[in-house]
Amino acid sequence: FDVWRIVLRRKNIIFITTSIFVFAAVAFVLIKAPVYRVEAMLMVVSEANQPLSTSSLASQLSGLAMLSGARLGYSDLREEALATLRSREFLENFIDQERILPVLFPSKWDDERKQWDVDDPSEVPTLAAGYEAFKSNILEVIEDRNGVSVIIRIDTHSRDKAAEWANRLVRQVNDRLRQRSIAEAQKSIEYLNAELEKTSIVELQQAIYDLLEQQVQKVMLANVREEFAFRVVD
Fold it and tell me: How many Cβ atoms are within 10 Å of 97's Cβ, its own excluded?
């Protein structure tokens, strides 16, 4: 009985307090920006580094091929592409190029003046902090259990930005691995040409020519294939 008497005496306070909490909860739901999710399903371009068939002697020159950087057999780009996509250096560079730090730390960014709103310059978010935030809150890389496909998932408050970042991530991974492959092949060509001048043995010369042909083809394929490592399938 005493409890109900207290409740009745303070019913106005209870009503007001409850109303405030309900209003705050509704306002939070209405004000909070929605999070959009974009997923891109990727396939690894397995033939990206597949070489020409080489002569039996060239195949036996594994030591020479290793020294030159030539890849005699099929090399799956999957692990290299995934490692690049998740690497700190690559993602920090992407965050910097795309100016993503203000999106990751909106409370510290003055959008009207287009500058950081902090009392101390040391409070300006770094690329290292951006990498951690991007990896934790924005980007998720999901590998298929069968090793067939890879899914890139982007969560952000802008649907357009989510799609744009997903496409640009794939494009930049492809560009980076393409340039790396071309550089490796060109270095191999230089080395093999130098070795070619050192020998007068016809069979050995032919084997080196086969390795050179393989590397030239590698450069040609890299230059014409836009989707060098990842191909977007969905």
Answer: 10
Rounded CA-CA distance 210/234 in Å is 38
Q: In Å, what is the CA distance from 140 to each residue of 44, 125, 161, 228, 229?
A: 17, 21, 15, 21, 18
- CB burial readout 197-234, b (16+ within 10 A) else e: eeeeeeebeebbebbbebbeebbebbeebeebbbbeee
Structure tokens at 217: 């083809």
The three-state (H, E, C) secondary structure of 116-158, written as one string? ECCCCHHHCCCHHHHHHHHHHHHEEEEECCCCCEEEEEEEECC
* pLDDT over threshold 60, residue 232: yes
Contacts of 67 (CB under 8 A, 6+ apart): 191
Sketch the domain layout of the chain as residue ranges: 1-32, 34-232
Provide the 3-class DSSP secondary structure of residue 38: strand
What is the average pLDDT score of the chain?
81
Sign of CA dihedral 75, 76, 77, 80: negative
pLDDT tens digits, one per residue of 76-119: 678 889 999 999 999 999 999 999 999 999 999 999 999 999 99
